[in-house]
Each structure stands twice: as structure tokens, then as C-alpha cells.
Specification:
By secondary structure, this protein is of the alpha+beta class. It has 6 helices and 12 strands. A hairpin with a 7-residue loop joins strand 5 and strand 6.
């Protein structure tokens, strides 16, 4: 945190500070032509399956290319931590850092969930968000963040010396082990930084520390995605419940979340622009 200043400011300090910011990765060239099509298609979806994720636990689910899926609040305010993978190649997984760099700290309708290097393509597009009315509040907070990494047992051990096994990192790891038959060491390496679904977060104005506040989500709210390739999803119901007070403990009320899979008419999707793996040569200047 840059709150302690030991160095002496130069005479032109104010001039240096007052320069205008430049967007690092302007996305104007990424013309979004799919969303109007997806909004037409989503009016006639068919619910084909659903799964309930119990409190302080995680489960896997599969979505085929061209299908939609929703994460829904069903009993009370609850945050979920989402990992997604390309279903056949688990090394291609969600890249929250690059997604954040392109689309900002919090995601909503029209934003894409990009995969890691060397693939860097859209795994899924967010097609509907019943919480988009929230925007950004006076504290700078908003919902569905790609800032936080996920609550985990290592940070809990570091800060409180407690071994807590039902945090999101452990929940996601356990789901991959139990439901996909992956060895625990391999599963833990596959777990990655998440989309914090329904979580309300931001950075404090003074110290710029990551904060959380009670989620505005209520039963019936959902976040909807369109799968641009075959996906394996893993969703954890965070032990922090609505994350208004704490997480990584059993002290707050938690609720289940529902994941539902929806099919669409493939004829209506024929004009979509396909998501493609990066065409970069991967030469890296080595000849």
C-alpha cells in the first residue's frame, strides 16, 4: 500500500501526477456482433437440466457449445465462485487477469470470459444480468468481480493460523477430485482465479484495499452465459454467504445456488461469429 511516503517529492511532482490516464487495452476493435443475436435467441430457450450446489460446497457441470447456462439465487443472498475450462482441454481455463484488463473490474452483459495463454479466446459471453441496475455505488463497489482471487486455506492460515477446508479454493479442488476423478495435486493446480458471481466488491478510496459488502442478490436473480465452446464449469457457494461480514468460516448464513442449462435453436445461432483460439505464431522472437 502506498500510504507511507519516505521519499522526497521532486519539484515537478504535481506535473507528473496530473498526467491524463490512457486505457491500456482499448477494445473498440473487438466489434460485438453476437449480442443482438443472442438476445433474440434467449427469448426461446428450453431448460434441459439443473443442479443445486449446497452451501459451503462446489459441484461441476458441463455445457455444450451453443448452449446457455444460468447461475441463480434460489433461497437467499449468496455469492458464488466460478471456474470454467474448455471441456476437452482443462489447461485452457478462464483468465481473470486479462479479462479484467480488457473489460474492467466487474463483468456484466456483453462482457466475455477469456481463456488463458496461449489460447486467449472467449470461452463464454455474459448474455443477461438481473443485477446490472446496481452499477457502481458511492464506495466504488459493484457486483460480479474479477478482482478477488477466491477465499483459500493458505491466506486463512497466514492471517489467522486456522485450517479451514470449506473455502472456495478447497471447494473447487474437492469438486474436481470427487466428481471428475482428478488427483488432488492435479486438481489444485487447475483451480484458478474466479469470477465472483453476485459478490459486491471494490477498492477502498484511501488504501486501495479490496473490500466486500453485502451482496444485493435476491432469490430469482441470475447471471446468464452463452457457451462459445464445450465447457466444464465448477461453482462454489462461498462460506461468506452474502459476503457482508466475513468469509472462510462457518459463522454466517449460507444458501444454495442453482445452475441451469438451456438449449437454443441452432438455426438461430448460424450467423454468430465463432470464438477462435489465438492465431499468434508462438515464435516469441526465437526464429
Amino acid at each position: 500500500m502506498k500510504t507511507k511516503k519516505y521519499s522526497r517529492a521532486p519539484s515537478d511532482a504535481q506535473d507528473r501526477i496530473s498526467v491524463k490516464p490512457t486505457i491500456c487495452y482499448p477494445i473498440d476493435s473487438l466489434k460485438e456482433t453476437n449480442l443482438p443475436i443472442l438476445h433474440r435467441v434467449r427469448k426461446n430457450l428450453e431448460n434441459i437440466s439443473e443442479i443445486i450446489i449446497p452451501p459451503r460446497d462446489a459441484k461441476t457441470f458441463e455445457v455444450k457449445k451453443g448452449q446457455f447456462f444460468r447461475i441463480e439465487s434460489i433461497e437467499g443472498p449468496q455469492v458464488g465462485d466460478l471456474n470454467i475450462f474448455q471441456a476437452i482441454n482443462l489447461e485452457e481455463k478462464f483468465f481473470s487477469g486479462k479479462t479484467r484488463a480488457l473489460y474492467g473490474t466487474h463483468l456484466s452483459t456483453g462482457d466475455k470470459m477469456l481463456s488463458c495463454f496461449p489460447y486467449l479466446r472467449s470461452l463464454a459471453t455474459i448474455t443477461w444480468d438481473t443485477l446490472d441496475w446496481y452499477g457502481y455505488d458511492k464506495d466504488g463497489g459493484s457486483v460480479h468481480d474479477v478482482i478477488g482471487t477466491r477465499c483459500d486455506p493458505y491466506t486463512s492460515k497466514l492471517l489467522s493460523d486456522n485450517d479451514y477446508h470449506y473455502c472456495c479454493h478447497s471447494n473447487l479442488t474437492r469438486a474436481l477430485v470427487n466428481e471428475k476423478g482428478i488427483k488432488i495435486d492435479e486438481a489444485e493446480k487447475l483451480v484458478h482465479d474466479v469470477l465472483n458471481v453476485f459478490m459486491c466488491t471494490g477498492f477502498t478510496n484511501d488504501t486501495k484495499q479490496y473490500f466486500m459488502k453485502s451482496s444485493p442478490v435476491r432469490p430469482g436473480d441470475y447471471l446468464e452465459f452463452f457457451a462459445e465452446t464445450d465447457l466444464l464449469g465448477v461453482l462454489s457457494t462461498c462460506p461468506g454467504g452474502d459476503c457482508g461480514s466475513e468469509h472462510s468460516s462457518d459463522n454466517v448464513k449460507c444458501y444454495p445456488l442453482k445452475v441451469s442449462i438451456w438449449s437454443a435453436s441452432q438455426d438461430l445461432l448460424k450467423d454468430l461469429t465463432s470464438s477462435k483460439i489465438s492465431s499468434y505464431s508462438r515464435n516469441h522472437g526465437l526464429g
